[in-house]
Amino acid sequence: MNTERLVAMLATQPEPASAAALQRYAIAMGCGAGVAALLMALLLGVRHDLGAVILLPAFWGKVLFGACLAVGSLVAAARLSRPGVRLAWAPGALALPVVAMWLFAALELAQAAPSERMPLVLGETWRSCPLLIAMLSAPVFVAVLWAMQGLAPTRLRLAGAAAGLLAGTTGALVYTLHCPELAAPFLGSWYLVGMLIPAAAGALAGPRVLRW
Amino acid sequence: MKVSSQTAAASLHQGERVTEPVAATNNKEARLRELLVRGLAGEAAAYQAFLKELSAHLRGFLRKRLARLPDEVEDLVQESLLAVHNQRHTYDAGQPLTAWVHAIARYKLVDFLRRRGSRDALTDPLEDEGEILRFADYEAVDARRDIGRLLAELPDRHRLPIVHVKLEGLSVAEAARLTGMSESAVKVGVHRGLKALAAKLRGRR
What we know:
Strand content of chain B: under 5%
Shape of chain A: elongated
Mean pLDDT of chain B: 84
Number of strands of chain B: 2
Oligomer: heterodimer
Number of helices of chain A: 9
Helix content of chain B: 55-70%
Mean pLDDT of chain A: 94
Structural class of chain B: mainly alpha
Structural class of chain A: mainly alpha
Order of helices and strands of chain B: HEHHHHHEHHHH
């Protein structure tokens, strides 16, 4: 078949371009976050003193931290899903909450007595926190890569990393409902590690999973 | 099969390789974009004009980039055209067409070079988006790989809808009656079949 014939074939009765790809993103986020919440409730359980904790500003700082990163990575993933769309301000929007959290962490550490500093960083759950966040990110991870396959990312490693980061930030957001930690030095380190595990997995998987 | 049936618009340029000045590429961007938007709205003639013009630009771009592999150019032109068609839902009308087309062509080029295991051209800067509309090459040569033959290898649920609807020009209803498939199965068959065809193109080199 020569190129002219191919052009004629493609242009014959052009099927309307489907809007299904955007729906896929919505479905992926909804289902992924839903399954993650279910996993958290069943395997870990919502923290029993949640009613008291939601009155603390530190709790909302933690939620805001996760939410800002989730929105930033959603924008980055959506942009990287289409050919020729620049990331523009998305990396900056991702850096901002991290820098803010580190500033708070530095402030808390500076004000703490030297002997209290390590406990502020390690909390009581530093060993399990990153792994649990990574575990809770799995449903969104699979769902978002599936949604991305319906679009056309051209920078596969970066797109995979953005998909992983979106999964990690959503997982972290769900995890806040279980997690007992509130100290900024803890959040700025172990939450970040937990989010970066799926991001790294996405960067590794992207070139294979997202090819088109 | 030698390409002999160049139609009116393209035959004016037969054998001609064009390098456009910058102002002309701006006009071209606007014109191509209008054709694509009309095509996406279902206007077959506009869509065909878009793809035809685009194939000349893809050929110009790829021939320049694959100067050492001239025999591969037409295959990659066809693969890129199919990619543009399959991914047309990712074009946002508010976006410069040049950036979108360039990103797809560059992606297909890099993917092709990676498949071949050659890394040389990857080090070339490919960031100049305007490049894609600056060159046009209307001199199609034979593709080495026959898409028609790959089409014949698709399973019936993909192949028959494409043959009846896209090649013979039957309506979806007629194709459904002829094949005994439902109309939605015919539509899905065309859509998935063209994606399967693209997968075959990149799998077979």
